[in-house]
Specification:
With 181 residues, this protein is of the alpha+beta class. It is built from five helices and seven strands. Strands 1-2-3-4-5-7-6 form a seven-stranded mixed beta sheet, sandwiched between helices. A hairpin with a 2-residue loop joins strand 2 and strand 3. The chain is globular.
Length: 181
Amino acid sequence: MTDTRIRLLREEDWDDVVALEERAYAASGLSEGGEALRSRHRASPSTCFVLEHAGGFGGYLLALPYPLFRCPDLSRAESGGGVPASNLHAHDLVIAERARGRGLAHRMLRHLEETGRAAGHRTLSLVAVRGSQVLWTPLGYRARPEIGLPASYGAEAVYMAKPLEAAPADPVPSPSRAEAG
């Protein structure tokens, strides 16, 4: 996939991000609008990414540190900077229509996991909307239906979380007898 890369979200990406978010969520009443989306980015610019695919905008991922078992309210912008937390909340992940079906969402999630591990986060969380928990469960996320969510997510939303396991270490080769000589 040399025609695909993940990079930090930049100012010039906002028109594409807001338009894609609206297409993905407006019909279900879950669209947040540009200012709320921007506030998530301001809270943690180092964990918000854009997918470039086949020479164009292929999607985005907004994530921010948030206390475990809590999440942003879709009806409100974030106030102030990011909150120190051992949990990294994957707030929104949308792949552009033209790039879907290629495993790019999983690629973006792996990138987020690597970023989270490197920053010392111990867990990842998200809110599954519109029945999407069936997609998240095989990726290691566990539904936590006992966690109350803001009404802005709708009645079917489910909080989910997973531990961020330590990345496997590269094995250090032991010297052979000839090398130790």
